[in-house]
Amino acid sequence: MKQLVQLGGGYGNMRxxxxxxxxxxxxxxxxxxxxxxxxHCLKTEYYALAAGTISDQHVRVxxxxxxxxxxxxxxxxxxxxxxxxxxxxxxxxxxxxDLVIGLGCEDKYHNVPGADEHTFSIQTIERSRKTYQxxxxxxxxxxxxxxGAGLSGIELASxxxxxxxxxxxxxxxxxxxxxxxxxxxxxxxxxxxxxxxxVEIVNNSNITRVEPNTLHNHEEQIFCDAIVWTAGxxxxxxxxxxxxxxxxxxxxxxxxxHNLPQDENVYVVGDCASLPQAPSAQLAEGQAEQIVTIxxxxxxxxxxxxxxxxxxxxxxxxxxxxxHGFGLVNERSITGRVARLLKSGVxxxxxYHNG
Length: 355
Prior knowledge:
Number of helices: 9
Distance between the termini: 28 Å
Shape: globular
Mean pLDDT: 96
Strand content: 25-35%
Largest sheet: 6 strands, mixed
Low-confidence stretches: none
């Protein structure tokens, strides 16, 4: 029996499972998924969990069940490619014939002193829960600093504004305008929403140090009762520790078939993979579709396609609280209630098809 082992139960590996099961998995292949949590987590919704506008249960989806699918819950310490083993902390190693690494990302602190120790995070469900407890327990009038005005920072700031109208929220952005990579119309719309709702945007910021309850922006010290870091990501430590070729962002360089150049049995999906597009759940799912195609052909000793099609992304959607949103769909800017309804619909469809 061949062993397909998946590291991480995120968007990419969930799509692999749902394409192979129940009917496409060859009779001589079994699957083991390794994750520290006994459920799939909707990471794109952690901002709402941290802000307290949805419950913990809303960001969890049950893993599928199948006779030849098993689970190992725990922490991964490393990948031994020479011996084809996944090393576990305080557990026996897990052998594999094929491996799909989908371990996601962690916060990147850009060597800012104190950032790791003195800020909260929404990168894992555990850390999002801690962030929620802290933000929920702040007294009225407290100041919350959010470092990083990308999609995560914007959604957290807007959701927190609706959850806690009594808080003072400061959103720090390195650029001259938020969403600098997006059309100016979208940037202006989001900026206007924050102005109307009393969220202070600090443009052209440069956080040089973080101390307990204090941000150093350039030479200015800014007091905050809580600080949340949403200013960049990097691949998980397990992947960072692997002795494989990586790009400038630390993501693993792959062949066109999504496997390591030196090992056709090891694939990388999602945030840890070096791809032309920016990391996203949608990109991980598109990549997973192609990995399933390659796995099935290799298992059946069939010839691989000369080229794989470019992964097409439908667009990006962001929320501004529960009633407003923004996005790019088929390269068209959309704002307001339509964008928010679209995002809610996408989430509902995902949970309906995966739960």
